Amino acid sequence: LVQVDISFTLKGIDLQAIHSREVPDCYSFHNTASITFDNTAHSGKIKVYFNSEANIEECKGMNISGSKGSVICKKCFLNRFINFFLEKYKRRVCDADQWEFINGWYILVTISDLMTIIGSILKMEIKAKNLTNYDLCSILLGTSTLFVWVGVIRYLGYFQTYNVLILTMQASLPKVLRFCACAGMIYLGYTFCGWIVLGPYHEKDIGVTLGY
Protein backbone atom coordinates (compact mmCIF):
# COMPACT_ATOMS: atom_id res chain seq x y z
CA LEU A 1 0.00 0.00 0.00
CA VAL A 2 1.58 3.24 -1.20
CA GLN A 3 -1.04 5.99 -0.93
CA VAL A 4 -4.63 6.36 0.26
CA ASP A 5 -6.93 9.31 -0.50
CA ILE A 6 -10.10 9.75 1.59
CA SER A 7 -12.76 12.33 0.69
CA PHE A 8 -15.61 12.99 3.09
CA THR A 9 -18.12 15.49 4.46
CA LEU A 10 -17.29 16.98 7.84
CA LYS A 11 -18.98 19.41 10.21
CA GLY A 12 -16.96 21.20 12.89
CA ILE A 13 -17.76 23.55 15.77
CA ASP A 14 -15.51 26.40 16.87
CA LEU A 15 -15.98 27.47 20.51
CA GLN A 16 -14.41 30.90 20.83
CA ALA A 17 -16.74 32.52 23.36
CA ILE A 18 -16.24 32.69 27.10
CA HIS A 19 -19.96 33.00 27.87
CA SER A 20 -21.83 29.71 28.22
CA ARG A 21 -24.96 30.72 26.25
CA GLU A 22 -23.28 32.27 23.24
CA VAL A 23 -23.88 30.41 19.95
CA PRO A 24 -20.69 28.79 18.56
CA ASP A 25 -19.52 28.96 14.95
CA CYS A 26 -20.22 25.90 12.79
CA TYR A 27 -18.10 25.04 9.78
CA SER A 28 -19.10 22.60 7.08
CA PHE A 29 -16.49 20.80 4.97
CA HIS A 30 -18.28 19.36 1.97
CA ASN A 31 -16.73 17.14 -0.70
CA THR A 32 -13.62 19.32 -0.71
CA ALA A 33 -12.32 17.77 2.54
CA SER A 34 -9.76 15.05 1.94
CA ILE A 35 -7.01 13.23 3.81
CA THR A 36 -4.01 11.74 2.02
CA PHE A 37 -1.84 9.04 3.59
CA ASP A 38 1.52 8.89 1.82
CA ASN A 39 3.57 5.73 2.38
CA THR A 40 5.90 6.00 -0.60
CA ALA A 41 9.00 6.02 1.63
CA HIS A 42 8.06 2.68 3.34
CA SER A 43 9.88 3.87 6.46
CA GLY A 44 7.12 3.21 9.01
CA LYS A 45 6.24 6.92 9.12
CA ILE A 46 3.18 7.69 7.01
CA LYS A 47 2.86 11.32 6.01
CA VAL A 48 -0.67 12.70 6.45
CA TYR A 49 -1.99 15.64 4.43
CA PHE A 50 -5.34 17.35 5.06
CA ASN A 51 -6.95 19.60 2.43
CA SER A 52 -10.26 21.38 2.94
CA GLU A 53 -12.38 24.43 2.23
CA ALA A 54 -14.72 25.48 5.04
CA ASN A 55 -18.16 27.13 4.83
CA ILE A 56 -19.75 28.85 7.85
CA GLU A 57 -23.29 27.59 8.58
CA GLU A 58 -25.87 27.80 11.34
CA CYS A 59 -25.43 25.22 14.07
CA LYS A 60 -28.26 22.68 14.14
CA GLY A 61 -28.88 19.29 15.66
CA MET A 62 -27.75 17.56 18.83
CA ASN A 63 -24.09 17.22 19.72
CA ILE A 64 -22.78 14.20 21.62
CA SER A 65 -19.44 14.56 23.35
CA GLY A 66 -17.23 12.52 25.61
CA SER A 67 -16.55 8.80 25.57
CA LYS A 68 -20.06 8.01 24.32
CA GLY A 69 -19.53 10.14 21.23
CA SER A 70 -16.16 8.50 20.61
CA VAL A 71 -17.65 5.00 20.76
CA ILE A 72 -20.53 5.98 18.46
CA CYS A 73 -18.12 7.58 15.99
CA LYS A 74 -15.91 4.48 15.83
CA LYS A 75 -18.93 2.20 15.45
CA CYS A 76 -20.35 4.31 12.61
CA PHE A 77 -16.98 4.41 10.86
CA LEU A 78 -16.64 0.63 11.11
CA ASN A 79 -20.18 0.07 9.79
CA ARG A 80 -19.53 2.45 6.91
CA PHE A 81 -16.34 0.59 6.06
CA ILE A 82 -18.17 -2.77 6.04
CA ASN A 83 -21.02 -1.41 3.91
CA PHE A 84 -18.54 0.13 1.47
CA PHE A 85 -16.93 -3.24 0.81
CA LEU A 86 -20.33 -4.88 0.37
CA GLU A 87 -21.47 -2.25 -2.13
CA LYS A 88 -18.19 -1.75 -3.98
CA TYR A 89 -16.53 -5.17 -4.02
CA LYS A 90 -19.45 -7.48 -3.05
CA ARG A 91 -17.31 -8.83 -0.22
CA ARG A 92 -17.79 -9.10 3.50
CA VAL A 93 -14.99 -7.75 5.66
CA CYS A 94 -13.52 -10.57 7.75
CA ASP A 95 -13.05 -10.29 11.50
CA ALA A 96 -9.27 -9.99 11.16
CA ASP A 97 -9.64 -6.87 9.01
CA GLN A 98 -12.17 -5.37 11.41
CA TRP A 99 -9.65 -5.72 14.24
CA GLU A 100 -7.31 -3.45 12.28
CA PHE A 101 -9.36 -0.52 13.61
CA ILE A 102 -8.22 -1.37 17.15
CA ASN A 103 -4.66 -0.45 18.05
CA GLY A 104 -3.26 -3.16 20.30
CA TRP A 105 -0.39 -0.94 21.40
CA TYR A 106 -2.81 1.56 22.94
CA ILE A 107 -4.62 -1.24 24.78
CA LEU A 108 -1.28 -2.52 26.08
CA VAL A 109 -0.30 0.96 27.29
CA THR A 110 -3.69 1.44 28.97
CA ILE A 111 -3.47 -1.89 30.81
CA SER A 112 0.12 -1.15 31.83
CA ASP A 113 -0.81 2.28 33.21
CA LEU A 114 -3.77 0.89 35.15
CA MET A 115 -1.62 -1.84 36.69
CA THR A 116 1.08 0.72 37.55
CA ILE A 117 -1.45 3.01 39.25
CA ILE A 118 -3.05 0.19 41.25
CA GLY A 119 0.35 -1.26 42.18
CA SER A 120 1.63 2.16 43.28
CA ILE A 121 -1.44 2.69 45.46
CA LEU A 122 -0.91 -0.71 47.07
CA LYS A 123 2.76 0.12 47.60
CA MET A 124 1.88 3.37 49.38
CA GLU A 125 -0.65 1.55 51.55
CA ILE A 126 1.96 -1.09 52.41
CA LYS A 127 4.44 1.64 53.32
CA ALA A 128 1.79 3.18 55.56
CA LYS A 129 1.28 -0.28 57.15
CA ASN A 130 -2.39 -0.37 56.16
CA LEU A 131 -2.06 -3.43 53.89
CA THR A 132 0.16 -6.50 53.62
CA ASN A 133 -0.58 -7.61 50.05
CA TYR A 134 3.05 -7.92 49.01
CA ASP A 135 2.41 -10.59 46.38
CA LEU A 136 -0.35 -8.68 44.60
CA CYS A 137 1.70 -5.48 44.62
CA SER A 138 4.73 -7.27 43.18
CA ILE A 139 2.67 -8.95 40.46
CA LEU A 140 1.05 -5.68 39.37
CA LEU A 141 4.27 -3.64 39.32
CA GLY A 142 6.32 -6.41 37.74
CA THR A 143 3.77 -7.12 35.01
CA SER A 144 3.33 -3.42 34.26
CA THR A 145 7.11 -3.08 33.90
CA LEU A 146 7.10 -5.99 31.45
CA PHE A 147 4.32 -4.37 29.40
CA VAL A 148 6.18 -1.05 29.36
CA TRP A 149 9.31 -2.62 27.90
CA VAL A 150 7.25 -4.57 25.38
CA GLY A 151 5.60 -1.29 24.39
CA VAL A 152 9.03 0.20 23.64
CA ILE A 153 9.15 -2.12 20.61
CA ARG A 154 6.41 0.06 19.08
CA TYR A 155 8.79 3.00 18.79
CA LEU A 156 11.35 0.90 16.93
CA GLY A 157 8.80 0.68 14.12
CA TYR A 158 9.53 4.30 13.24
CA PHE A 159 12.93 3.19 11.91
CA GLN A 160 12.93 1.69 8.45
CA THR A 161 15.33 -1.10 9.42
CA TYR A 162 13.27 -2.34 12.37
CA ASN A 163 9.85 -1.74 10.81
CA VAL A 164 10.09 -4.79 8.53
CA LEU A 165 11.13 -6.96 11.49
CA ILE A 166 8.21 -5.77 13.64
CA LEU A 167 5.71 -6.34 10.82
CA THR A 168 7.11 -9.86 10.39
CA MET A 169 6.72 -10.51 14.13
CA GLN A 170 3.11 -9.28 14.07
CA ALA A 171 2.27 -11.47 11.07
CA SER A 172 3.91 -14.58 12.55
CA LEU A 173 2.61 -14.17 16.12
CA PRO A 174 -0.59 -16.27 15.65
CA LYS A 175 1.42 -19.14 14.13
CA VAL A 176 4.00 -18.95 16.91
CA LEU A 177 1.24 -19.10 19.55
CA ARG A 178 -0.30 -22.15 17.84
CA PHE A 179 3.12 -23.81 17.79
CA CYS A 180 3.59 -23.07 21.51
CA ALA A 181 0.17 -24.56 22.26
CA CYS A 182 1.02 -27.77 20.39
CA ALA A 183 4.49 -27.97 21.97
CA GLY A 184 2.92 -27.39 25.39
CA MET A 185 0.57 -30.35 24.88
CA ILE A 186 3.52 -32.58 23.98
CA TYR A 187 5.46 -31.38 27.01
CA LEU A 188 2.51 -32.03 29.33
CA GLY A 189 2.13 -35.52 27.89
CA TYR A 190 5.84 -36.19 28.44
CA THR A 191 5.63 -34.85 32.00
CA PHE A 192 2.66 -36.98 33.04
CA CYS A 193 4.11 -40.04 31.31
CA GLY A 194 7.40 -39.69 33.19
CA TRP A 195 5.60 -39.03 36.47
CA ILE A 196 3.39 -42.12 36.14
CA VAL A 197 5.93 -44.56 34.67
CA LEU A 198 9.22 -43.53 36.30
CA GLY A 199 7.94 -41.73 39.38
CA PRO A 200 7.33 -44.74 41.64
CA TYR A 201 10.92 -45.95 41.13
CA HIS A 202 12.57 -42.64 42.04
CA GLU A 203 13.37 -41.93 45.68
CA LYS A 204 12.92 -38.16 45.26
CA ASP A 205 9.52 -38.40 43.59
CA ILE A 206 6.88 -36.48 45.56
CA GLY A 207 4.66 -34.95 42.89
CA VAL A 208 4.62 -33.43 39.44
CA THR A 209 5.87 -30.01 40.53
CA LEU A 210 8.57 -31.22 42.93
CA GLY A 211 9.64 -34.16 40.81
CA TYR A 212 10.27 -31.96 37.79
Describe this structure in words.
The protein has six helices and four strands, in the order E-E-E-E-H-H-H-H-H-H. It is of the alpha+beta class. It folds into four domains: 62 residues, no CATH class; 39 residues; 54 residues; 44 residues. Strands 1, 2, 3 and 4 form a four-stranded antiparallel sheet that branches. Helix 3 packs antiparallel against helix 4. InterPro entries: MCLN_ECD, Mucolipin.
The SSE string, one letter per element, is EEEEHHHHHH
Give the overall form. extended
The count of DSSP E runs of length 2 or more, i.e. the number of strands, is 4
Question: How many helical elements?
Answer: 6
Strand content: 15-25%
Tally of domains: 4
> Roughly what percent helix?
40-55%
Mean pLDDT level: 79
* Gap from first CA to last CA: 51 Å
GO molecular function: NAADP-sensitive calcium-release channel activity
Transmembrane segments: 105-122, 134-156, 176-198
Keywords: Membrane, Transmembrane, Transmembrane helix
InterPro entries: MCLN_ECD, Mucolipin
What's the structural blueprint in terms of helices and strands?
Layout: E1 3-14, E2 25-38, E3 47-51, E4 54-57, H1 67-88, H2 95-98, H3 104-127, H4 134-156, H5 160-197, H6 208-211
Antiparallel strand pairs: 1-2, 2-3, 2-4
Helix pairs in contact: 3-4
Short description:
This protein is an alpha+beta fold and 212 residues long.
Please describe the structure with a list of short key phrases separated by commas or semicolons.
17% strand; 4-stranded antiparallel beta sheet; alpha+beta; extended; 212 residues
